[in-house]
């Protein structure tokens, strides 16, 4: 059996984190979550996600800081999907999805990010 | 987490909506836990909507936390009756209004009790005053959802009037708190 794709969700808003975790588990993904960028940096090496789904705006290490960490990982790092209630940050060409999250759009974006990896 | 640190309760409400003809949230009528049955387009702009799925069925994942004031979840203008009303008539009225509890007022329009349909059904032709519960616990509109749920659980009551001074603003029932994701 093919192992499930692992997704690490990073969002400081607990309701968004819980909702996305539940939705993505329903879709058969293996999901872990982190409350902010700093916690996610520690979780990246341990969980080794295929996809990093991160909010852009968070206290401390934000989504863009996390993006820099993930890009520098030795194995090439996970595919990255950014999400935010605000417009896509300039100069970043990673797949982006606006909040509130349309789950069908998110699933398509995750697949696109995995193909780009 | 430090011992004794306050724990913020957060709930994710899963709301199933009515299927929309073209499978989009914008064209669906959805049952929003906060606003009732609304156009799905209203939900897209709502800060409480965290995530949604529009096909094959509309599903919304809304959020709430138990520090919200109870006033935003109460039902205004709660069905009421008077102490002199016959139980069978009050029971029929409650059934017609689709509620389990009636607030009971005296002749000076003061809240003096709460009657549930179980009591009213047994009361027959007696007056509501004979079967109502005279121990009325009420909450102020600023009471948080969490405090209200804890109080209702402790007091074992299913209906909590919300009052401002002597003015009755509305009621919150166990069903309302379930709807808010904060069960009593």
What do these coordinates show?
- The complex is a heterodimer of chains A (117) and B (184).
- With 117 residues, chain A is an alpha/beta fold.
- Chain A has one domain: Response regulator (Rossmann fold), CATH 3.40.50.
- Helix content of chain A is 40%, strand content 22%.
- Chain A is built from 4 helices and 6 strands.
- The two termini of chain A are 22 Å apart.
- The mean pLDDT of chain A is 89.
- Classes of the chains: A alpha/beta (117), B alpha+beta (184).
Q: Biggest interface and its residues per chain?
A: A-B, 16 and 19 residues
Unreliably modeled segments of chain B: 1-6
Per DSSP E runs of 2 or more residues, the count of β-strands of chain A stands at 6
Largest sheet of chain A, order of strands side by side? Answer: 2-1-3-4-5
Taken from the alpha-carbon principal axes, the silhouette of chain B is: elongated
- What series of H and E elements makes up the topology of chain B? EEEHEEEEHEEHHHEEH
Total of DSSP H or I helical runs spanning 4+ residues of chain A: 4
Average pLDDT for all residues of chain B: 88
Query: What is the distance, rounded to the nearest whole angstrom, between the alpha carbons of the first and last residues of chain A?
Result: 22 Å
Helix content of chain A: 40-55%
As residue ranges, the low-confidence spans of chain A are: none
Tell me the name of the CATH homologous superfamily of chain A. Response regulator
What CATH calls the topology of the largest domain in chain B is: CBS-domain
What is the H-and-E element order of chain A? EHEHEHEEEH
Compute the average pLDDT of chain A: 89
CATH architecture of the largest domain in chain B, by name, is Roll
- Count the domains of chain B: 2
Q: What's the domain count of chain A?
A: 1
């Amino acid at each position: 059996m093919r192992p499930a794709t692992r997704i690490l969700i990073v969002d400081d808003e607990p309701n968004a984190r819980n909702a996305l975790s539940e939705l993505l588990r329903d879709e058969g993904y293996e999901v872990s979550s982190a409350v902010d960028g700093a916690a996610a940096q520690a979780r990246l090496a341990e969980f080794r996600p295929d996809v990093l789904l991160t909010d852009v705006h968070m206290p401390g290490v934000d989504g863009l800081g996390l993006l820099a960490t993930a890009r520098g990982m030795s194995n090439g790092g996970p595919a990255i999907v950014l999400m935010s209630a605000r417009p896509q940050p300039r100069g970043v060409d990673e797949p982006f999805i606006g909040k509130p999250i349309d789950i069908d759009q998110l699933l398509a974006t995750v697949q696109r990010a995995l193909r780009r990896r | 987490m430090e011992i004794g640190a306050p724990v913020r309760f957060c709930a994710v409400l899963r709301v199933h909506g009515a299927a929309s003809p073209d499978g989009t949230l914008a064209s669906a009528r959805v049952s929003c836990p906060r606003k009732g049955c609304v156009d799905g387009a209203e939900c897209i702009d709502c800060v409480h909507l965290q995530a949604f799925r529009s096909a094959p069925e509309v599903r919304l994942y809304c959020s709430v936390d138990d520090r919200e004031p109870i006033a935003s979840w109460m039902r205004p203008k709660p069905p009421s009756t008077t102490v002199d009303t016959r139980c069978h008539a009050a029971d029929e009225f409650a059934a017609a209004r689709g509620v389990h509890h009636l607030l009971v007022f005296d002749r000076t329009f003061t809240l003096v009790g709460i009657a549930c349909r179980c009591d009213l059904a047994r009361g027959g032709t007696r007056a509501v005053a004979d079967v109502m519960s005279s121990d009325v616990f009420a909450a102020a509109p600023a009471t948080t959802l969490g405090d209200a749920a804890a109080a209702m659980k402790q007091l074992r009551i299913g209906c909590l009037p919300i009052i401002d001074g002597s003015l009755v603003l509305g009621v919150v029932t166990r069903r309302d708190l379930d709807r808010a994701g904060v069960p009593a």
